[in-house]
Amino acid sequence: MSDFDINPFSDPSVRQVARPPPPRQTNAVLDDYNPFNETTAPARQQPAAGGKTPSSNQPAVMPVAEAPPPYTPSSAAAAQASAAAEDLRRRQVELEAKEAELARKEQEMQRAMQGQIRQNNFPPLPAVCCVQPCFYQDFNVDIPLEFQRIVKTGYYIWMAYCGLLVINMFGAMGYFIGTVSSGATNQSGVTFGLSILYLLLFTPCSFVCWYRPLYKAFRSDSSFNFFLFFFIFFFQFCVTVLQAIGIDGWGFCGWITGAQAMASQLPVAVYVIIFIVASFFTALAVVFFICLIRVHRIYRNTGASFAKAQEEFARGVWSNQTVRQTTANIASTAARGAAENAMSGTRY
């Protein structure tokens, strides 16, 4: 037998390799699954741990159990927002104040250019009255916006003081009537007479002596009027303290007068009214002191000084035509007298 007659598949090792493999065990789930058919479901599912079959409708991602809390700004952010809003409001107020001040100055300039003379409007008396107003007063025109409140406060304090003088007069009148009816001996008649005098005297004097300097001080930033106000208003504060004390015979219904009326066994209504007036005087004295302190604080921030007040006083006095004429007359008279004396001495 030649080499070409040999069958290569007769070798046992070759036959073993060429033998077909045994049939494969396929998974029934994979055989039944069609990826192109959406409605076809697998034949069966593997049970989950614990022997329970998972639901086919359960989503792959579990939903969040609770919604996230709503967003709230932090305290620092809220504080910054509040500060920014407050700053905007402050700037708005400052701009409105500057706008009002510019409008007031423009109105004054127009009035000055037109040559208009401001007519007095205080006290507001009717036209048929024989006495006409003596002063011009307009807070919105004369007083800067930042000082209008303190000037109006001074005006209301003056009005309260005048009203209290009227009440003091009625209290003194009741004190006098009660004394006469009970036959007691005291100085109630003097108190009643002086209360009328104080009403007629202090009402205009307080307006002219300390309220008008306050008004003019803030109107023109006058150091001289500031000093005049401080001096006279401090004197007014001292007088109000004496009125609250109420020494009998001084014209004031104060604490001492009320105690004396009670000791004289006057009717209850008499010394009750006197004690009410004394309490009003005491409260007004406190208000005077507070107003004095507030005006002094504002005065220190305006840059006024005593030297500036002296300069204003000298300039105001020298610019007065009457003062200048009087000074010139006195100087000329003195010079003429000196010349005559010199000539008479030379003659002898």
Q: Could you explain the architecture of this structure?
A:
The chain has a domain at 150-320. It is 66% helix and 0% strand. The chain has helices at residues 12-18, 28-32, 75-113, 139-142, 148-182, 188-220, 223-245, 255-263, 268-301, 306-319, 321-347. α5 packs antiparallel against α9 (268-301), α6 (188-220) packs antiparallel against α7 (223-245) and α7 runs antiparallel to α9. The radius of gyration is 52 Å and the shape is elongated. The termini are far apart.
Draw up the topology in text.
Blueprint: H1 12-18, H2 28-32, H3 75-113, H4 139-142, H5 148-182, H6 188-220, H7 223-245, H8 255-263, H9 268-301, H10 306-319, H11 321-347
Mean pLDDT: 76
Q: Tell me the helix content.
A: 55-70%
Number of strands: 0
| End-to-end Cα distance | 199 Å
Shape: elongated
Measured by DSSP, the beta-strand proportion falls in: under 5%
| Uncertain stretches | none
Question: What's the helix count?
Answer: 11
Query: Radius of gyration in whole Å, from Cα?
Result: 52 Å
Based on secondary structure, the structural category is mainly alpha
The ordered string of helix (H) and strand (E) elements is HHHHHHHHHHH
Major sheet details: none
Task: Give a brief rundown of this model.
By secondary structure, the protein is mostly helical. It has helices at residues 12-18, 28-32, 75-113, 139-142, 148-182, 188-220, 223-245, 255-263, 268-301, 306-319, 321-347.
